[in-house]
Known about the structure:
The structure is a homodimer. The first copy, chain A, has helices at residues 34-43, 65-77, 88-99, 114-122, 142-156, 178-187, 207-210, 219-222, 236-242, 264-279, 282-301, 322-330, 335-342, 365-382; strands spanning 21-22, 81-85, 105-109, 126-130, 162-166, 192-195, 214-218, 230-234, 305-307, 316-320, 345-346, 355-359. By secondary structure, chain A is α/β, with parallel strands linked by helices. The first copy, chain A, folds into two domains: 21-29 and 282-383, Alpha-Beta Complex (Aspartate Aminotransferase, domain 1), CATH 3.90.1150; 43-279, 3-Layer(aba) Sandwich (Aspartate Aminotransferase, domain 2). In chain A, the strands form three sheets. Chain A has a seven-stranded mixed β-sheet, sandwiched between helices. Chain A has a three-stranded antiparallel β-sheet with strand order 9-10-12, covered by helices on one side. In chain A, helix 4 links the parallel strand 3 and strand 4 (126-130). In chain A, helix 5 packs parallel to helix 6 (178-187). Chain A is globular and about 70 Å long. Chains A and B meet through helix 1, helix 2, helix 3, helix 4 and helix 8 of A and helix 1, helix 2, helix 3, helix 4 and helix 8 of B.
Amino acid sequence: xxxxxxxxxxxxxxxxxxxxxxxxxxxxxxxxxxxxxxxxxxxxxxxxxxxxxxxxxxxxxxxxxxxxxxxxxxxxxxxxxxxxxxxxxxxxxxxxxxxxxxxxxxxxxxxxxxxxxxxxxxxxxxxxxxxxxxxxxxxxxxxxxxxxxxxxxxxxxxxxxxxxxxxxxxxxxxxxxxxxxxxxxxxxxxxxxxxxxxxxxxxxxxxxxxxxxxxxxxxxxxxxxxxxxxxxxxxxxxxxxxxxxxxxxxxxxxxxxxxxxxxxxxxxxxxxxxxxxxxxxxxxxxxxxxxxxxxxxxxxxxxxxxxxxxxxxxxxxxxxxxxxxxxxxxxxxxxxxxxxxxxxxxxxxxxxxxxxxxxxxxxxxxxxxxxxxxxxxxxxxxxx
Amino acid sequence: xxxxxxxxxxxxxxxxxxxxxxxxxxxxxxxxxxxxxxxxxxxxxxxxxxxxxxxxxxxxxxxxxxxxxxxxxxxxxxxxxxxxxxxxxxxxxxxxxxxxxxxxxxxxxxxxxxxxxxxxxxxxxxxxxxxxxxxxxxxxxxxxxxxxxxxxxxxxxxxxxxxxxxxxxxxxxxxxxxxxxxxxxxxxxxxxxxxxxxxxxxxxxxxxxxxxxxxxxxxxxxxxxxxxxxxxxxxxxxxxxxxxxxxxxxxxxxxxxxxxxxxxxxxxxxxxxxxxxxxxxxxxxxxxxxxxxxxxxxxxxxxxxxxxxxxxxxxxxxxxxxxxxxxxxxxxxxxxxxxxxxxxxxxxxxxxxxxxxxxxxxxxxxxxxxxxxxxxxxxxxxxx
Lengths: 384, 384
């Protein structure tokens, strides 16, 4: 490489984000537990989990990856089989790629994460989006799935090869009627993926109870794991397709290219797992939902409007912040970010004021109260 | 999940492998630098690098991912463009998937890593293996590539869509005549991938100098990074295909599903990068090669036989250990593993005696001498 390449900017880089309070929807569920932080150092070296590998990641007995992947995880997500992948999007692509042929159709909710659409594009299949109801609800209904599937049938002569539901979606934190929607899909003979990237690891979740044929979950988004790492769930009916082994390398699964999360990522997921199981217990999740609703009410009292499900059922919420937008017109669009940073509150994207989302997961009532007070002070300061 | 699920076996798990001396070919190049160990803790939380993300991982300015991906890394691997991926195998699949259609052919060396073959199977393309020369050399020659490409032409009516060379291979550590082989591929109009999973980050490497159209490298195998993480290199000619953006999400690259190594994995790669650049300087690599050759000579003096390139040009070596195999027939096949473990020497797979591989990268002459002395003592102990 050229002699003059400046290397000084690389090496150890410190993270400068103040984050005494973190409301970033991408981050609240991925904050590591103390156990996971220790696991990082213990298993950080490349290929550390492979000390005793006999050729299949999921079969490793020491550390107990086999028990995690084949016993604990399927029970946790309520599916027949599971695998650990490099992320929810990688889980979705693996399922789509295994289950479809180029030119097939997939029907997915209009609130789907962009990575579901890009995964379908990578699998070279066509996407039909199920429309959401108008603002402010943005709901996804079983009836809309019926209509979308009918449309694909008319257009292509057969039902779509797959369906996908985002549960909850990552914009509004809406929890759709998953049972109703999976029933619609099954009535048409269409297998359905539940993308639970914001559900698995945050809230009580059982794929089979919801009617899922496949589940995608995210370790770094919702399971207090160091990413990229995710989970894939599949029921027996489709297991042989999704978990197909190489014809030449009998112990290597094709869709996972042999193996996936081969290092600290899976070990942090395992390290945090007992805490994650604990936080998804109904009584703990109910507290989170109650905090979210309380926070939503406080924000609305300050003049903001929470869109999506109301009362809300998830920690991820979308707000219309007209009051902040009005201030930004008089000052600049970064004032809110700056003021919150001053108080070490992270999570609303720099520059956003009119519409923003945030997550209250694990923040707790006291810190949420501090956020509300800070917002109040900001409004007061700029309304003088 | 069921009440009786035993969670005690999860949580923080300690790594019990003694590894004062590590000879594991999978692991020697992936041992973290002190900077990378600090980076793990600094960036371990899920989605930590996304604090200031505007929608594209490779465009993030803080931390300096943009400068790394678009300036330092392409210069380091000697290619026009680079991306950070979830591993070398994921790089290979992305290239194969973008560059081929199902039913196409790929020609690859008979020493190829299994993941190259599985990646081709995932891309639903046919694999023609280029035969290696017989034992003990196992060489891959340009002439053999010519013959294999000719065969594909005869069989399918056109040249293969892609070729791949493993440089060096992961069994023998052989460095084939890459320039000669890429020239053969280009003479047939076939673009070629160099799988440098054991080269990039260990030794001087320049993809363009070798004639590569694409490069795959491994962070956890050879760049002192916490995996799964890898690099992909592509030259201008094929960049628009491999780096194609989503038609609906203009800033998301399809083959990477939007983004890849979104956390501690890329930050440990960046943290170790200055050290990795240093160790790949010719004078430092020459010392590694000299250590490997010295070690090979010592092992042969003990009655073992090193297969592959001789004199050897890489730290990864394959040995025929007949002397150990003979002992195992009188005792049990785990004696070697047990005895080495006793001296905190890790890296020869449990149960192997007749054939095994190891890597001397970064171990140093003193510790290698200790390994040789230990081997000598073991032979003496069991030959009494």
